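Fold it.
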Amino acid sequence: MEQFEKLAPSEAHQHWVDGTAILVDVRDPQSFHAGHVSGAFHLTNETLSTFLEQTDYEKTIMVMCYHGHSSQGAAQYLINIGFESVYSINGGFEAWLREYPQAVTAL
């Protein structure tokens, strides 16, 4: 994969349920703390090095932002640095929250 691909929330949810992909959330800390997908990794400039150290570059990565726009840049960045399979979730957290509110937690 030389470029990220887009993933529908339903496909992302299935990967999340099956445990076949890592979900990262690139929203700001306040939004992440107010609500995020259970088990999502909060990927920020501060947590990037930890993520890179702990994550297998062959594992599928799904990137989530607010509405599915900012995640595209983050997804392409992850592809550019060597991750093999990266997806941006269409509609972002807002779409996920509408469809799967039971899968959202707050800190």
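Helices lie at 9-18, 29-34, 48-54, 70-80, 92-99.
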